[in-house]
Write a structure and sequence with these properties.
The structure holds 2 protein chains of 2 kinds. Helices cover 43% and strands 12% of the residues of chain A. Chain A contains 12 helices and 10 strands. Chain A has a 7-stranded mixed sheet, sandwiched between helices. In chain A, strands 8-9-10 form a 3-stranded antiparallel sheet. The longest helix of chain A has 39 residues, at 264-302. By secondary structure, chain B is α+β, with helices and mostly antiparallel strands. Chain B has a 4-stranded mixed sheet, covered by helices on one side. Chain B contains 2 helices and 4 strands, in the order βαβαββ. Chain B has helices at 23-34, 49-60; strands spanning 12-15, 40-44, 62-69, 76-82. Classes of the chains: A alpha/beta, B alpha+beta. The interface between A and B is medium-sized, with 27 and 19 residues.
Chain lengths: 407, 84
């Protein structure tokens, strides 16, 4: 157990009536919930820590009385835990109100810090919409994307060419793609960016708690609800020495990087979840990756005209995406929901905008009949096997409604 | 032919405007089965068609030979032809 675990366990065990079991709680996923990439169920360790920290960590951690010191101890311990997982120093790590806010502040701070170097903001074309929106908000028409191959991996030659142009403020590259799971060559691209003196922003939202994280970045952003923490906690890490300038008012919280009062209980819960998830990570990720391999091999055998998307090897351990030819994604999700499965889709008929996923479009992939399966920690093997059993019939039914036999 | 001079030669027009994915691609597939040699001009305003028509061509061994605006400016036109 790390330093944070000791502090919280001691504080929580003395401060609440019920025994707060911060360690030892294992996550078990709700039956049929296969949409962890949207949000993970709250980890039991996070729930315990949250309830205890609501009592222990409510005071303003910047004040000088004993309640404040207790909040400060909890917050510092949480920061140390998260920093350890990210491979960062605690003073490099700030907590935000969401992953989206972390991305926005991280990207905006780099743009301001690089004002004299340039104003062009580069992103891979398959970044999360939070990154693309932040890039457009910060750089307007000077925001540009770098293309990807058919698996969703950034075109490294195109990235090198774009970095060599004058006036680049930063490059944003995710650790791994949230829709198809493909890992990005972050270390390679980071080395290219360094050659040109361009800072790299890494959105690690899908990777934290799931796999080894890239270490070579200027700014990193993540989101606690993706790893089993509560919603409302993002992580912004800024490497020491990086030219990053806040637009927060003087006296802002979290090393001057984030406006607003930090939610100490939620942050404590997020750190407790991360600590618990990290403890089991190697074993659990290997188990989930084997289940993903099973889906990747069995589904196209059982369902004709299935396209399996993303890199088969260089991928997130817990995520796989299919496109089923001639299938309406909305009906597919409804049928799977009726069969007890919570899954998601990048098909346009499922989006509010009626636009297909920009990720699938950038890959040149079939966008209709799209199905993303992302396994929460603790996902039952039986759920995956039942999905494999159910999918052929569901897809055949949807295709039958559209009369696509023989096409 | 009633279309403007910018359209390439084609045998049949499939007007799938107003219909959403996967219907335009299904219409394309059906017309291809009816006449595998036909040069098909698909009109579609579903934004997914921009991705799905070339993806379908790849899956079924057809060639997306030309893409442009639909003749009256409503949606896009996709010319799909047999592989050479």
């Amino acid at each position: 157990m790390g330093h944070y675990g000791r502090v919280v366990a001691r504080d929580l065990s003395t401060g609440t009536d019920g025994a707060a079991t911060v360690s030892g709680a294992r996550s078990s996923a709700p039956a049929g919930y296969l949409d962890a990439a949207s949000t993970a169920p709250l980890h039991p360790a996070a729930r315990d820590a949250l309830l205890a920290a609501l009592d222990q960590g409510w005071a303003d951690p910047s004040r000088r009385y004993h309640q404040a010191r207790r909040s400060r101890i909890l917050l510092d311990a949480a920061r140390e835990t998260v920093a350890g997982v990210l491979g960062a120093r605690p003073d490099e790590v700030s907590f935000t109100a969401s992953g989206t806010q972390a991305v926005g502040l991280g990207l905006g701070g780099l743009v301001r810090g690089r004002a004299r170097a340039g104003d062009r903001v580069l992103s891979s074309a398959v970044e999360h919409s939070a990154v693309l929106h932040a890039a457009t908000a910060a750089a307007g028409p000077r925001a540009a994307t770098v293309g990807v191959d058919a698996t969703g991996r950034i075109d490294v030659d195109a990235a090198a060419a774009a970095l060599a142009e004058p006036g680049v403020a930063l490059l944003a590259l995710q650790s791994a793609n949230h829709e198809v799971g493909t890992r990005q060559p972050v270390d390679l691209v980071a080395a290219l960016a360094r050659e040109h003196g361009v800072p790299l922003l890494v959105d690690a939202a899908q990777s934290v708690g799931r796999e080894d994280l890239p270490r070579d970045w200027s700014v990193l952003a993540a989101s606690a609800h993706k790893w089993g923490g509560p919603a409302g906690v993002g992580v912004l890490a800024v490497r020491t020495g990086v030219r990053w300038r806040s637009d927060a008012p003087e006296g802002a919280q979290e090393h001057g990087r984030v406006p607003g009062f930090v939610d100490v209980p939620a942050v404590v819960a997020a750190a407790a979840a991360l600590e618990a998830v990290e403890r089991d990570r190697l074993v659990e990720s290997a188990r989930l990756s084997a289940l993903v391999d099973r889906l990747r091999s069995r589904v196209p055998e059982l369902v004709p005209d299935t396209v399996v998307l993303g890199d088969p090897v260089e991928r997130l351990p817990h995520l796989v995406t299919f496109s089923f030819l001639y299938v309406d994604g909305e009906t597919l999700l409804a049928d799977l929901d009726a069969a007890g499965f919570a899954v998601s889709s990048g098909s346009s008929c499922v989006s509010d905008s009626l636009q297909p996923s920009h990720v699938l479009a950038a890959m040149g992939a079939l966008t209709h009949g799209n199905l993303r399966v992302s396994l929460p920690n603790g996902a039952a093997t039986a759920d995956v096997d039942r999905l494999i059993d159910v999918l052929p019939g569901v897809v055949a039914r949807v295709r039958g409604m559209l009369g696509t036999q023989g096409l | 032919m009633s279309h403007g001079p910018t359209l390439p030669p084609h045998d049949r027009v499939l007007d799938e405007r107003g219909r959403l994915c996967p219907l335009p691609v299904i219409a394309l597939a059906r017309a291809t089965v009816d006449d595998p040699a036909a040069r098909l001009l698909l009109l579609a305003d579903d934004p997914a068609a921009a991705s799905d028509v070339p993806a379908w061509c790849g899956l079924r061994g057809r060639v997306l030979a030309w893409v442009g605006d639909a003749p009256d400016g409503r949606g896009r036109a996709y010319l799909v032809v047999p592989a050479a």
